Amino acid sequence: MRDIAVFSGSAHPELAAEICAQLEVPLRPVRTQRFANDCIEVQLQANCRQRDVFLIQPLVTPVQENLVELLLMLDAARGASAARTTVVMPHYAYARSDKKDAPRISIGGRLVADLLVAAGANRVLAMTLHSPQVHGFFSVPVDHLHALRELAGHFRQHDLGNTTVVSPDLGNAKEASHFARLLGVPVAAGAKQRFADDKVTISSVIGEVAGRDIIVLDDEIAKGSTVLELLDRLRELGARTIRVACTHGLFSSGALKRIGDQPDVLEIVCTNTVPIPAGERVPKLKVLSIAPALAEAMRRIHNGESVSALFDA
User: Fold this and answer.
1) How far is CA 179 from CA 2, 187, 249, in A?
2) What is the pLDDT of residues 112-140, one digit of tens each?
3) Which candidate, 3, 28, 223, 235, has a CA 20 to 30 Å from the CA of 99?
4) What stretches of 49-131 adopt beta strand conformation (E)?
5) How many other C-beta atoms are found inside a 10 Å radius of the C-beta of residue 275?
6) How would you label 200-229 residue by residue, b for 16+ Cβ within 10 Å and e otherwise?
7) Residues annotated catalytic, as ranges
8) Could you tell me which of 54, 57, 58, 28 has the C-alpha nearest to residue 43?
9) How far lies 26's CA from each of 2, 29, 31, 197, 240, in Å?
10) For residue range 8-22, what is the model confidence (pLDDT) as tens digits?
11) 62 preceded by cis ω (within 30°)?
12) SS3 sequence of 223-236
């Protein structure tokens, strides 16, 4: 593609390389250095003048470092006279901070959206926001994609005649219903209460799960507390087999091993929106690539074609 320049921050260069391979364009180099006073400097080492620039950077650990790096990349692209700069953000960590549910707390999802726009973002390409309303925090166009088709394509390899998709909570039930329709199976949902970041209670599961093959679907798995609590309820209700799926496999604090050690969990499936260190992988883990989907969306953005038509087809 002509007049396109793709750069990657340091958060997930492997995904950026996959995307560029799909687009058949080079991944342009970025130089990042840290001064003695701990400040970061970023230089985009390719011509951006009057080009369509894409900056690929999921907000993953260390989130604040990667966010500042992305802001500096945006500023560098604007200073280099880019015609348009699109942030490709496969994971938006601050989407969890979407409302004021306690006195005197910040709404990080909105603040970070404002920072990205102020730094020079003309468009955002995101994947499976934790709270869909975060889409509205941005004052520039946002293409909000999902990975349900990639996940559904994987699970169609199995016999789904006795399968139910289960959402861990009612907040994710709409996405689980969409996923269940793609597979042609029924859906159920847990009744969840959260008391702390790592303390949740699921009092019941709404829907038929006894004797069924279960696919637990969540948008992201961090510490895994919700999934492990749901597994306890599913066992009590007599589920036959269990598979776990999510878009963002964050798997912090040993969550991947804890879930993988459950004897009735046959498989853990996620996408590569975030990097998963090789040392933390378990035999039950299957990682699907969303690089083709992101690359096609970027191609359509660049060519002025409909992105929604691609993902509604």
Assistant:
1) 36, 9, 18
2) 999 999 999 999 999 999 988 899 999 99
3) 223
4) 52-56, 84-89, 123-127
5) 16
6) bebeebebebeebbbbbbbbbbbbbbbbbb
7) 192
8) 28
9) 11, 9, 16, 41, 48
10) 999 999 999 999 999
11) yes
12) CCHHHHHHHHHHHH
Per-residue b or e along 234-270, where b marks 16 or more CB atoms closer than 10 Å to that residue's CB? beebebebbbbbbbbbbbeeebbebbbebeebebbbb
CA of 265: how far to CAs of 103, 110, 302, in Å?
Answer: 40, 37, 42
How far is the C-alpha of 29 from the C-alpha of 233, rounded, in Å? 49
CA dist 123 and 186 (Å) reads 36
Determine contact, residues 184/175, Cβ cutoff 8 Å: no
3-class secondary-structure state, position 94:
helix
Question: Is there a contact between 271 and 147 (Cβ–Cβ < 8 Å)?
Answer: yes
The rounded distance, in Å, linking the Cα atoms of 23 and 295 is 6
User: Helices (DSSP H) in 120-224: which residue ranges?
Assistant: 148-155, 173-183
